[in-house]
Automatic annotation (TrEMBL):
Gene3D superfamilies membership: Winged helix-like DNA-binding domain superfamily/Winged helix DNA-binding domain (1.10.10.10)
Entry protein name: Regulatory protein RecX
Domain RecX second three-helical: 48-89
Taxonomic source organism: Geodermatophilus arenarius
Chain's role: Modulates RecA activity.
Family to which the UniProt record says this protein belongs: Belongs to the RecX family.
Protein keywords: Cytoplasm
Boundaries of every RecX first three-helical domain copy: 2-40
Leader sequence segment: none
UniProt domain RecX third three-helical: residue ranges: 96-138
Database matches in InterPro entries: RecX_HTH_1st, RecX_HTH_2nd, RecX_HTH_3rd, Regulatory_RecX, WH-like_DNA-bd_sf
Protein localization: Cytoplasm
Domain of life per record: Bacteria
Length: 167
């Protein structure tokens, strides 16, 4: 029974040992039977937390633009231990994080054209924070992209009725 439950769970997607152990516990499988099946699956390579962590980090960082901090939390929640998680997170360096944050800001910025620069900055930094980016990196990337695109600068002097020389 435990073997069938695990095989069914692994058919849809890779799972960590802890995820499968939790599933077996919820299904009422005795601990000894669960341990034996999970050990055997680990021996034959059906359960590999390190490979799961590498694939998870690669997928979530590229697809969702998550920072290492958020990825670490997700791996911990899935039961990947510290060493396997850290090795997987080593795939993502500071430049990868910065590039992903920049991409997220560039993609979101056009939708914020109707709000002022302060509001847009707050929203963009908040978005990056929810994805695990630290405040310094988030603020720097947002400022950099806004400056490069000219976001929040009034290019039409007539629309305001005066220019900077009038101030």
């Amino acid at each position: 029974m435990a073997r069938a439950i695990c095989l069914r769970a692994l058919t849809g997607a890779a799972r960590t040992r802890r995820q499968l152990a939790d599933l077996l516990e919820r299904r009422g499988v005795p601990e000894e039977a669960a341990t034996a099946v999970l050990d055997r699956f680990g021996d034959v390579g059906l359960i590999d937390d390190a490979a799961f962590a590498r694939a998870w980090v690669s997928s979530r960082q590229a697809g969702r633009g998550l920072a290492r901090r958020a990825l670490r939390a997700e791996l911990r929640a899935k039961g990947v231990d510290g060493e396997d998680a850290e090795q997987a997170l080593a795939q993502v360096d500071e430049e990868d994080e910065r590039a992903a944050a920049r991409h997220l800001v560039e993609r979101r910025l056009p939708a914020l054209r109707r709000v002022d620069r302060v509001t847009a900055t707050r929203r963009l930094v908040g978005m990056l924070a929810r994805k695990g980016y630290n405040g310094g990196l988030a603020a720097g990337v947002v400022r950099e992209v806004m400056d490069e695109t000219g976001f929040g600068t009034d290019t039409d002097e007539d629309s305001a009725g005066w220019d900077d020389a009038d101030l």
